[in-house]
Amino acid sequence: MQPEQNRIVYLDNIRNVLVFKVVVYHAILAFAYPILFWWATVDKEGSARIFETAVRVMYIYMMPCVIFIAALFIFPSLKQVGVLQYIKKRFLRLYVPVIVFVFCMGDIFPYLMSRKMGNLSLTYLDTFIGFWRSFIDIPLIFMTDPDIMINKIHFDFYHTWFLTLLFFVTIIVVLLYLPFIKKSVKPAMPESRKNIITETILFALTLSIIYVIVSWIYVLNGILLNGWTMVGKAVFFENIQIWMLIPFFVFGLYVYKKEWHTRSDIGSWKMWGTLTLIFLGLYIILIHFVYLPGVEGMYKIVEHNTLFDDKLALPDFDTYLLIGTLLMWFVSPLSCVFILMFLLSFAKRFFNRPNAITAFCSKHSINVYILHYIPVLLFQYALLDVPIASIFKIILMMIIIIPACLWLSHRLVYPYPKTAILFFVALKLAALAAGFEFYYWAILAIIFISFAAALYEFTKFMISRNAIQNTA
Description:
By secondary structure, the chain is mainly α. It is about 75% helix and about 0% strand.
């Protein structure tokens, strides 16, 4: 679970921002009804279209940008430690956390979903058994659907799906690299700024065309765009997003080979920022004013059909909505590529100097990604009936959960990974014996204690730093 060394500062800073945005993203999901009707702690009264729009906007670029950055560090790490040691480190860092999370926390979502559906007789132990029984029954290639997601206890990797995908695509790259491992590689000549901009725009346009074609094929064949596929009970990915993730991963390998991220001028942050404003702005307009008004009713019908036997017919897409959806599909990859290039150019220009705070966050960002999910769910559940505005609930979750997860990583997970695993497994076994209420309050207590400890240590750090600066 330990992070790699010898990172590039501005790339780590981008990754930090993206990981914290993932926490914000999951916090907002509770307030994005009806498009997120399947969320276990959905707050229908607190939902608003602005949150649905925010969810869709963050969705298009967060994980593609993260997998791009991950691709940049494969070969430096591989050359540093060797193939076998690298695969071992990848497994320990990516897949062991998945296994621990799924065993200790994977059944919390379906249990909360059962409470939401009014199935109060289902015990936490029943949910645990059903969760792992569904894993045994899953075929080697399995696609989810809304009915399974709501009405059945089903196995799921949840947010750790990304770690499963990253692990396996990384291993594939390493295996393909083996025949060339002894060949010397000539240093790449820095590409011109004009060539980099041209290649990037061509990549974005090609990806957009492919994305539209694949989306249309999926729709014609009844494949859910936002459904999920599990392969070999080990890799999990979203049906349509995989067509963004794999190209961005390959693009990251290409950027590494050409050394764009270290030696080349990739273009002005102002230029990429302008392109981002244009295309992301168009995407937001299409989502907020065309797509969501046209599909919210459909999502409510899908929700009804998953809950009740009297099935309702879905309305046909009108021409206006169809054109808007096609444009949205086309614009989303363009927006994502331009956002990535803006982040790279902006961070390289302004956030490329190491400091204690960003180094600390970089060291623990992957653990924050793993740890935050269940606290977010439980806070959403605890705040469901609290009469405050949704935005304040989201802000409250961010203020408490991010520092708490950083502190847990700093004081437990990072320095004592085996102890951390034993602790969470023991807590899980106690919860199976004592029931969900014990687990619920234990996790909340851990988060609040961790938050208080983080606040205390941060205050000490700032006082100490100010004292050193005043002395100097």
